[in-house]
Description:
The protein has about 600 residues and is of the alpha/beta class.
Amino acid sequence: MTTDLLRALRFMRRYTLVAGFAVLAVLAASAAELIAPQLLKRIIDVGITGSRTDVIIAAALGLVGVAVVGGIATFLQGYLSARASHGAAYDMRNAIFEKLQGLSFSYHDRAQTGQLITRVTSDVDLVRDFVGGGLVQAISAAIMLVGAVVLLLEMNWRLALVAFASIPATVFVLVKFVGNLGPSFRTFQQRLAALNSVLQENIAGVRVVKAFAREPFEAQRYRGADELLLDQGLKVRITVANAFPLLFSVGTLGVALVTWVGAVQVIHGELTVGELVAFTSYLMLLLQPLFIIGFGAQSIARAGASAQRLFEILDVATDVAERPNAVAMGPIQGRIELRGVTLRYPGSTTDTLSDLSFIVEPGAAIALVGATGSGKTSVVNLIPRFYDVASGAVLIDDTDVRDVTLDSLRSKIGVVMQDSVLFSGTVAENIAYGMPDATREQIEAAARSAEAHEFILQLEHGYETCVGERGVRLSGGQRQRVAIARALLIDPRILIMDDSTSSVDAETESALRLKLDALMEDRTTFIIAQRLSTVRKADTILLIDDGRLVAQGTHDELLAENCLYAEIAASQLVGGERVGMPDHCDLLAERGDV
Ligand SMILES: Nc1ncnc2c1ncn2[C@@H]1O[C@H](COP(=O)(O)OP(=O)(O)O)[C@@H](O)[C@H]1O
Ligand SMILES: [Mg+2]
């Protein structure tokens, strides 16, 4: 935990200069505090005892000067440390964000959004508070501690030793206190993250919650998580509340002891009154740092727990990592080969794909057919290397996808995923997502090819209509077509469409298919579709069953010779179109759309 905190300090690197000045300001402020008792002593011992008004005035002015310097230094310390710590927090957030983006699909399959958001926000803030407040205070406290110890020893070493008697007890209380707090704060952050996960899921799924009238259940779930957080918050408070009276008692005991011994020394003429006053002032300066460290300990414990959570993300190894000697992939033909591929998802105990081999010639259109959960999506996800194979290899133009950089590989593949996610922004921006410098002509051409142009023009602001969160809600089919346009715009050599037209109505789909036919001419295309018409057009159909390739051929070939295919064709693939349906498929057309 402490090591995580020290690692977190590395985020201060860019702000060394600012932080350096903050420490200088701390030194100045501490010096001012250490000088003040000396002036006080002079006022009492020389000024009052010797009836010297000039000394009193000079020393009093000195006190004012010291206070002014101290005030300015304290302000600068606060300002400069805030600059440094907010800068460090800015860098931390960006580092985590970039790390999260770099993590592979398998990480995000299992990560909870609420958890991640808590780390990027609350945990970063807690580490920042420590760096900006706790750390500077601790440095200042350490300086004061050393200064006070030296001055006390110098003034009256015997009395100083009496004063130091209370230090071990104070340190003991502190150490125990920090030890207890660290795990408590960690639990607190975990419960906060759990609460945020419930919140995030509920906001994202609010329509489902309402559809099933589960509001009371969800409210109960949230309240449950909230109660756990409340309990933990109180627990932390109680630990803190217990520690401070103890610290104060130990400290006050020390002061009482010194005053008593010192008073006896004054009576015996071994000490002046001014010296005793200055001495007790320094004693307060000695105890104050200990209290600050005590307060700081809380911030240290808390920041340590948060730093640990930050590095849990920053240290995750990416499953799908670029090889050090990866090269950029040059222009490709689009020949794809899966050679003895086995895929096992992280955390799974069985292989999702086993010993899968096939070759696709450049420009071919491939349809993947199989029952739900048979592994169709898993197969196509291997081509842009969303996941890595456990054994075997995926080759594009005889190059293993693991030998090239991810950027260059993925920029050649247009992917339309099973669910079409749009970002907040205009329709045009969403289509141009993979090619931000695309011209309006290119965007419109892509939209036309995706059969999206017409409906986009009918939106209130056409291509400039805002969609995504807080924008116009498009229908499922409309979103799919925007997603298709987005994939087509980058003019990929390889096009992957995973159930991309499932929500598009039959009529639009057949219009879309005509356009796609032309577009598919010179690209290697993988289609996972539920419509027979789409599948029938494919050059080759790959029949997947339970992660294995069980047959391949054209629709007619498979229909004639493969019972599983015939069965799937009957149960899964739906027609809807009125043209060219073979006799024995007529029945299917009756089943209508899914
Ligand atoms: N990200 C994942 N992590 C773990 N298991 C997965 C993941 N994606 C899919 N699976 C599992 O792999 C199998 C094949 O899934 P998938 O390829 O999505 O099938 P299909 O697209 O044919 O419906 C299923 O049993 C599914 O539960
Ligand atoms: Mg799928």
